Amino acid sequence: MENGAPMTWNPSTEGPPSREVQALFSERQFRSVLDVGCGWGRNLAPFVRDANVIHGFDLDAEAVKHAATKLGYRDGIRIWQDDIRSTPLTGQYELVICLGVLHFLSTSERAGCYQKIKRWVEPAGFIIIVQFNAVNPIPSDLAELMPDVPADSSEILSAFEDWHVVSHESYTYDDDHDNGRIHHTHSIDRLIARRPA
Ligand SMILES: C[S@@+](CC[C@H](N)C(=O)[O-])C[C@H]1O[C@@H](n2cnc3c(N)ncnc32)[C@H](O)[C@@H]1O
């Protein structure tokens, strides 16, 4: 992916929030949530009723438009177009979600983004990060978009080694997209971690 070029591969435009979002949402209330690479907004939707601050950004203008429509308009909800690599965002949130985004970046960009994400989380706040790794090679039709994914789980675990790991899963699975026309095998890391108080 060229720097700043739109990245629109998003097989989850509709559908339910990720299982990590559902698990945390069922356990506690969040006052403020940021979704980095929010896509069409499925992972922010559960928080609309009760959170004061719901922020999300995405590189893709079309996704921003859909997410803004899905989440609605009120004080505290803001969805905008931005790039995690260059955003000037400095706020802090109780929960930061970054699902299916960081595997598009280079290893050095990702290293900077892990640190950014950590700064965006309040003390005792949470992150949810889900991303592919190369334990199973990236499917050939996606390889150009994801030329530099983490080799395995060690990169993300070492980025958050000073945080409390709430849950971490790493596994390989088969997936179908586009009504079964596209078959992929993915290896994935799914991390929930909590910043020390
Ligand atoms: C696979 S989709 C996931 C969308 C959403 N997180 C979800 O789970 O439904 C990846 C999203 O990351 C966005 N994206 C890719 N690179 C990005 C970047 N550098 N900064 C912000 N968003 C980015 C894409 O535009 C796309 O909407």
Order of helices and strands: HEEHEEHEHEE
**Percentage of residues in DSSP E strands:** 25-35%
Characterize the overall form. Answer: globular
Q: What's the CATH class, please?
A: Alpha Beta
How large is the radius of gyration?
16 Å
Structure annotation, total helices: 4
Could you describe the largest sheet, including whether it forms a barrel? 7 strands, mixed
CATH T-level topology: Rossmann fold
Total strand segments: 7
Ligands (ions, cofactors included): S-adenosylmethionine
End-to-end separation: 37 Å
Low-confidence spans: 1-6
Order of strands in the sheet with most strands: 3-2-1-4-5-7-6
Tell me the count of domains. Answer: 1
- Helical percentage: 10-25%
CATH superfamily membership: Vaccinia Virus protein VP39
Give structural notes:
By secondary structure, the protein is an alpha/beta fold. The chain has one domain: Vaccinia Virus protein VP39 (Rossmann fold, 3-Layer(aba) Sandwich), CATH 3.40.50.150. The protein contains four helices and seven strands. It has helices at residues 19-27, 61-71, 107-119, 154-159; strands spanning 32-36, 53-58, 77-81, 93-99, 121-133, 164-177, 182-194. It has a seven-stranded mixed sheet. Helix 3 links the parallel strand 4 (93-99) and strand 5 (121-133). The N and C termini lie far apart (37 Å). Residues 1-6 have low confidence and may be disordered. Bound molecules: S-adenosylmethionine.
